[in-house]
Amino acid sequence: MKLTLLFLLLGIVAMTAAPQTENSPEATTTSFFTYLLSSKHDITKDSAAQTRWLTKDVRQVLAAAVAGANKAGKAHPGEQIDSPDNGTFLAAWDPPTTFKVTEVKSTPPTAHVDLLYKWGPKTNYPGETRKMTALLTLEDGAWHISDIQSHKSKFNPNSTLLGDLRGLAKQH
Questions:
Q1: What is the Cα–Cα distance from 50 to 47, expressed in whole angstroms?
Q2: pLDDT digits (tens, 9 = 90+) for 49-67
Q3: How many domains does the chain have?
């Protein structure tokens, strides 16, 4: 009798356990980084993608970074001006070949999703790996990227997306 009750309870728990949904922190992060790695996409020019994946705060800081880069470009024609692009979000000018989610910690309204980037043989960093952490916030009923932490590696210092964008906004 006890065994039957146990199986019944396990069956109920299995049926009611929430599967990974399209709007989970892991799914949001995976779809966002897949988007960034596609050369046909540019998050800085795609307002629909910005609204889908970025918090309002990140969108505002991104807009300020784009404006700062444009202003610096006009003030210094012919000079190399850093402008935000997908590489800013990846914290890499040579994008990784692949990435995978290694850990998810979710305590709504926030979540942390750890990623591991890998560069393939035909890149500037063959065989390199780097840990990243996407920070997400529940906003308007969906998970959105609120910052991205790049952990120190051989070719990269500790940095954050918001810090990098704010730096680009202050170009002279």
A1: 5
A2: 999 999 999 999 999 999 9
A3: 1
